[in-house]
Prior knowledge:
The chain is an alpha+beta fold and 200 residues long. The protein has five helices and eight strands. 28% of the residues lie in helices and 24% in strands. α1 (12-22) links the parallel β1 (4-7) and β2. α1 (12-22) crosses α5 (185-198) and α4 packs across α5. The chain is globular, with a radius of gyration of 17 Å. The mean pLDDT is 94.
Amino acid sequence: MSKQVIFATGNKGKVKEIEMILADAGFEIRTMKEAGIRIDIVEDGKTYEENALIKVRAVAAQPQAQGCIVMADDSGLEIDALGKEPGVYSARYLGEDTPYSVKNAELIRRLEGVPDEKRTARFVCAIAAKLPDGGEIITRSTIEGRIGYEEKGSNGFGYDPIFYYPPYGKHTAELSEEEKNQVSHRGKALRLMKEELKKI
């Protein structure tokens, strides 16, 4: 099976996580840009799985992706007290180009007065892979925690600075890369995907 993987993302933080987790399996990871694929993909799915599949199918259809495994993820933050918002719209919450510092501040503001036990939240990640033979695999995982009262840490990206992870007593942006990869939604979903690919 091909060890060439094109990951449908331009997010450098995400690519670093992916490379760390898949490195020992011998996969060579490239971004869409590195593979010379420049297409706009409209993620209009209603679930994380649907959005991940939309991405892999669009990229796999490009001539540069022939013979490669194409992977994509869709992830989001679900806050129980806000009816699981922002959910699948996490990247587009308050507008795609809005800095996460603004998004994070707004979510903290919306939770003003909400006590600890009701600030429960989770990160969800679905990863889809499209194989050179057309087969598709999907894995999904989560990390449970709470929304903090302020941004903390500088190791993460996105909503990491406001997501408090009780087992470590830290926000996910305060975790080392190794700690985060062990417990994160994406790390767990990637390890599941790695196991699925090993079976082929």
